Automatic annotation (TrEMBL), chain A:
Primary localisation category: membrane
Name under which the protein is recorded: ABC transporter permease
InterPro entries found in the cross-reference section: MetI-like (IPR000515), MetI-like_sf (IPR035906)
ABC transmembrane type-1 domain boundaries: 100-294
Domain of life (superkingdom): Bacteria
Keywords of the record: Cell membrane, Membrane, Transmembrane, Transmembrane helix, Transport
Lineage: Bacteria, Pseudomonadati, Pseudomonadota, Gammaproteobacteria, Thiotrichales
Protein's membrane topology: Multi-pass membrane protein
Subcellular location: Cell membrane
Residues passing through the membrane, by range: 7-26, 100-127, 148-164, 176-200, 221-252, 272-290
Natural source organism: Thiothrix lacustris
Family: Belongs to the binding-protein-dependent transport system permease family.
Signal sequence segment: none
Length: 310, 297
């Protein structure tokens, strides 16, 4: 490892970030909005600490609540062992960090369901020109549709169809997850189809000479060949899913990061801009982490460990 | 082996023609190819590149469908690919995500499902890898072994199917001269052991003469056909060093060269390419010779 390499790998990204922060810190205060000056990195970090403190306070409140309830119940049982004690769940406001987990859970739900539909469909379309011709126009038609256009339709349909006295999931969650699904289906279908359709002719001939059954052909030849393209599709899909989710949550009021941003926007306090910027950075970091996670999965599933994955 | 026996035709290629569709209408690649092959016979098909020799093999394999005529193997018409007509492809065609053992296993499981026990299958896979001298690297993946070794595994996979006919599509074409000589020797040993019927596509004159009982020479396309068939009356086992000096070897080699470059040479490039290819062949032969001599010493 020479100096140039070390510089490029470690120093250059560090300098880049530093420069960005400097420009931000100097430039931000010059823009004065109705909510005060745009916060620089220092103020944003303060907001982040504020959110951490809020989270800890809320956790403390929750623990206190359960403790009080526990004490009250033991007291009641001591007096009368047959006392009818109720255990109520804590219903405090979700903190920023709770909302992060809601968002991740929602996006993974939509994404996993999309994958379960898209990969088999892509394989079938890659193997059969007829199926491909049949679904290709639909893919091309629906692929460019914005999540904001899907959302009202999904909301109305979910309201009509997902009716239950004791729903397992909130409607806002179902709506957001379905919108994510509808938007992130396409890259996986397209890439899987391309991957499957481009399996080497030689390997197809081997399969024919061996008279492999359809299922063995898919398992032994198609899937391993198409794995890189399937993962390319999945990574594109997950990226889109995460972007769509934030928008969907804003409008569907699913208690995730999108709702957090929306609520802060509506709130309009002097802290709001800083908090929204914290959310933006967290959204970016999570998106990055999700992509890295997919890369690790791809390494795990790929037969060719030496292939450069980036 | 070359003389006709009383048994019925083992493999019959009868009046086979094939048209490929092109925007300018159908292109006739092969026209009325006829060939009878006996059991245990080693037949080479030689011709200039693009003459359709691989197409003949693909039709026998069932990968292409003849437009006219057909192929009959042991009294049954060939209409789809199958393991009884195992193919060794030019570029090995091993599944890159499976080890040598697993590649052969895929074929063995497919052919002997329900006929062999697990232990028998394992022994059979190992036996076939042993035949091609791949015992030492049987748990390596194709990207971890050399080109020659990959081709050996490809041969083991084909042999493991116990094919009625073994189809070799320029099996050694992509290898260096030294490796090629080793593999040719292996192929001769295996064929002497197992007595498989073999059809081999080649463009290497020495390879054809050394390995074959008969050499089928194809005319140039379009509408290529069998131009001439040469019987190679050399005793077996054949040793490449001894063979090279026998008058019969020289006669056969000369006959094939004469057919390829005088009677059916490609007009536009006949002279320069002939010289070049001949030179290469000669060089390859010398290298192979040297290797055998050093081994012997």
């Amino acid at each position: 490892m020479n100096t140039k390499h070390i510089f490029q790998t470690y120093a250059a990204p560090f300098i880049g970030i530093l420069l960005f922060l400097a420009i931000w810190q100097i430039g931000a205060p010059k823009i004065v909005t109705s909510l005060g000056a745009v916060p620089g990195p220092v103020q944003v970090f303060d907001q982040f600490e504020g959110l951490v403190a809020e989270h800890q306070a809320a956790r403390q409140k929750e623990a206190d609540f359960y403790q009080r309830q526990e004490e009250r119940n033991t007291e009641a049982l001591k007096e009368d062992p047959k006392a009818d004690v109720t255990i109520r769940p804590y219903t405090g406001k979700a903190t920023f960090f709770d909302q992060i987990w809601t968002s991740i859970f929602t996006v993974m739900t939509g994404f996993v369901l999309a994958g379960l539909i898209a990969i088999p469909l892509g394989i079938v379309a890659g193997l059969s020109q007829t199926v491909y011709s049949a679904i290709n126009p639909l893919i091309q038609l629906f692929k460019p549709v914005s999540p904001l256009a899907w959302l009202p339709i999904v909301t109305i349909i979910v309201s009509a169809v997902y009716v239950s006295d004791d729903p397992m999931f909130a409607k806002s969650f179902v709506t957001s997850a379905l919108t994510v699904l509808l938007c992130c289906l396409w890259p996986t279908i397209i890439n899987t189809t391309v991957g499957v359709a481009n399996i080497s002719k030689d390997l197809q001939n081997v399969s024919k000479v061996l008279r492999l059954s359809w299922w063995t052909h898919v398992r032994k030849i198609v899937l391993p060949s198409a794995i890189p393209m399937i993962f390319t599709g999945l990574r594109l899909s997950l990226g889109i899913a995460w972007m769509v989710l934030i928008a969907a949550e804003m409008l569907a009021q699913n208690p995730g990061l999108g709702k957090f941003v929306w609520d802060e926007f509506q709130n309009g306090s002097s802290n709001s801009l800083g908090r929204i910027i914290v959310a933006v950075i967290v959204i970016g970091l999570i998106g990055f982490a999700l992509d890295r996670g997919m890369l690790l999965l791809q390494r795990h599933f790929s037969w060719d460990k030496s292939a450069a994955l980036r | 082996m070359t003389t006709t026996t009383n048994q019925a035709d083992h493999l019959l290629i009868s009046q086979v023609s094939i048209d490929f569709p092109t925007p300018q209408g159908p292109y006739r690649a092969l026209d009325k190819v006829n060939l009878r092959i006996n059991k245990g016979e080693f037949v080479s098909i030689i011709g200039h590149s693009g003459c359709g020799k691989s197409t003949v093999l693909n039709i026998v394999a069932g990968l292409y469908k003849a437009t006219e005529g057909g192929v009959i193997l042991d009294g049954r018409e060939v209409d789809e690919p199958g393991p009884e007509r195992a193919v060794v492809f030019q570029n090995h065609s091993l599944l890159p995500w499976l080890t040598a053992y697993e590649n052969v296993e895929l074929a063995v499981k497919q052919v002997f499902k329900g006929k062999k026990s697990k232990a028998e299958m394992k022994a059979w896979i190992e036996h076939n890898l042993h035949l091609v001298h791949m015992d030492h690297a049987m748990h390596k993946r194709p990207d971890e072994i050399s080109g020659g070794m990959k081709q050996r595994v490809g041969i083991a996979r084909a042999l493991a199917m116990e094919p009625q006919v073994l189809l070799l599509d320029e099996p050694f074409g992509a290898l260096d001269a030294l490796t090629r000589a080793h593999l040719q020797d292996s192929m001769m040993e295996i064929q002497a052991d197992l007595g498989n019927t073999v059809i081999m596509i080649t463009h290497d004159v020495d390879e054809a003469v050394l390995l074959s009982d008969r050499i089928v020479m194809m005319t140039n396309g379009p509408a290529a056909s069998v131009g001439d068939i040469l019987e190679v009356n050399l005793p077996r086992p054949r040793n490449r060093v001894e063979m090279a000096e026998l008058p019969e070897y020289i006669r056969c080699r000369h006959a094939v060269l004469k057919f390829l470059y005088e009677r059916h040479g490609r007009k536009e490039e006949a002279i320069p390419s002939t010289k070049k290819e001949e030179g290469e062949l000669e060089k390859g032969n010398i290298v192979a010779l040297k290797s055998v001599l050093t081994k012997a010493a």
